[in-house]
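Checklist before submission:
- one chain only
- standard amino acids only
- sequence pasted in full

Submission:
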Amino acid sequence: MTNENIILNPLPVPTWNSLKMNEASYSGEIPAVSCTPEIKKLPDALKLVQNATLDGIKSSAGELCAFLTGDSVLIESDADASPAVLNYDFSGGKTARLFLHAKENATLPISVVMTGEGTAVLEIKIQADSGSTVDLSIIQAVGDSCDVITDIGCTCEKNATFNLTKLERGGKSEYVAVSVDLFGEHSTFSANSGYRVKTNQSLDMNYVVRHTGRKTESNIFASGILENDSAKLFRGTIDLIKGCAGAKGTENEDILLLGDNQVNQTIPLILCDEEDVEGNHGASIGRLDDNIIFYLGSRGISPEAAEDIIAHAKLDAIISHIPDEEIKTLAHSLISNSEADGGEDA
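Returned file contents:
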């Protein structure tokens, strides 16, 4: 199915639009074929239900929702659980739908790996009941020349926690939408997003957190690398809604430029309709220090390998949040372009 100009990742409140940053437009293919996961690990504490869904969970992906149909998988947890691992193979172009439900005081740790050569569309909706914790890690390892769209939505009740770790290896055009509603008092959301956008690739991200409950807290951290002729747009919205007294929201982004002609755009947006709240944002961008390249060169390491070592170290902090050790190893293997060469300390 080909769809012309689907609007993706709109800002909740449009801003000055001379740079065309309020939303993205996608005119590629939304596959009609459903993708079912390969279950690598499913602990006994987790229950899998085919073709069940969760209702009422918002999205920040824009018009994409109208095109998401087909088979789905629901994973539920009503106790403490060890990590589950699912692998989705999007070869040939597929759409996948995953629903996660952590019941009261339960834990649901899960890692999702996206692979294959083809357009990949993944929808994940999450319900975190009172006192529960959902730890979701997503490793995007789809082919470098493919389009990738990921839509994540979550609702958190009282004292619930949603931790998201997301690693983007790159794609021809990639879109990431994350929507979180902190309804319950003392509910929290933490996001650690790492990306490496390679030559002639683009990445468009839209994170929206709505603080409704009192004393809720959100922390969004993005860290990534832009290589030659790549483009990235990060929209981060913290919405402090009236009644969320004592809420705190923070967003930060750290960007490393490797090469030339990158386009980097960042929109940190804080909306506030409550007095007793705290909202913070910041961003930093820079290139590798020539002294570092010179020092590593003196140890027999080429400039290209030196860049790769630094890039790997930068994303290592993101990978450390993944709960499954095998998936951590996979993530490390994906983020490097080359092996460091030579040098007595290499």
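Reviewer check: The mean pLDDT is 89.
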